[in-house]
Design brief:
- By secondary structure, this protein is α+β, with helices and mostly antiparallel strands.
- The chain folds into two domains: 51 residues, no CATH class; 129 residues, no CATH class.
- The chain is built from five helices and ten strands, in the order ββαααββαββββββα.
- β9 and β10 form a beta hairpin.
- The longest helix is centred in the last third of the chain and has 19 residues.
- The relative contact order is 0.14.
């Protein structure tokens, strides 16, 4: 369990001494930087905001009929759909573990949905649009660059779907960073081993 002291801007974890780094602190910092940047103060929060914006943000797609990333209720619809229909199952089939090399990975990640998940009568979704043309896939063996992620939009209700196909052995973190499930399991196992070592 990692503790953050906002008043003193310090991080504490039971597995290491104070001021020493560990994987738990690193993951906690990453999580809070993604979800609650206001917790950071001083130099640590200003980790070159310009480079953060240019490297990690998804290109904003704006046109007369499309705004991506979506906001407000449109964003809630995507999150609900992903949570209910695209959640990674607890028991994964063995075949999805194997994506580890560039030759096995498709560079154009397009949602498999062909019809709107919310409209009746199987209304077809529009043509794929590019969300990011500079995404990266993180594998256990390295980083695969030059990946393009796509979305599709319903012309009737405006529902947008993005690529989130765990059956391909991939987890779309934010349209810019894609993780192989093999890499996700590797991280989880490393954390479990570290916790077990601490408990013994």
């Amino acid at each position: 369990m990692v503790m953050f002291d906002a008043a003193n801007n310090t991080w504490h974890c039971h597995c290491v001494k104070a001021k020493q780094s560990c994987v738990h602190k690193a993951i906690a910092k990453w999580h809070f930087f993604q979800t609650r940047k206001e917790l950071f103060t001083g130099d640590e929060s200003e980790v070159s905001q310009e480079s953060q914006d240019s490297e990690d943000q998804v290109e904003t797609v704006t046109s007369k009929h499309l705004q991506y990333p979506p906001r407000g209720e449109d964003l809630e619809r995507i999150v609900r759909y992903t949570q209910h229909k695209k959640r990674i199952p607890a028991d994964l089939p063995a075949k999805v573990y194997g994506l580890t090399s560039e030759t096995e990975v498709v560079k154009h990640l397009i949602p498999k949905e062909c019809v709107c998940p919310e409209c009746p009568a199987d209304l077809p979704l529009g043509e794929p649009f590019i969300i990011s043309s500079s995404a990266k896939i993180i594998t256990v063996k390295g980083i695969i660059e030059g990946v393009t992620t796509y979305g599709k939009k319903c012309s009737r209700c405006g529902m947008v779907v993005r690529y989130q196909e765990w059956e391909d052995g991939l987890h779309n973190f934010n349209d810019k960073v894609i993780l192989t499930l093999h890499f996700c399991l590797y991280l989880r196992n490393c954390l479990q081993v570290k916790v077990q070592e601490f408990n013994t």
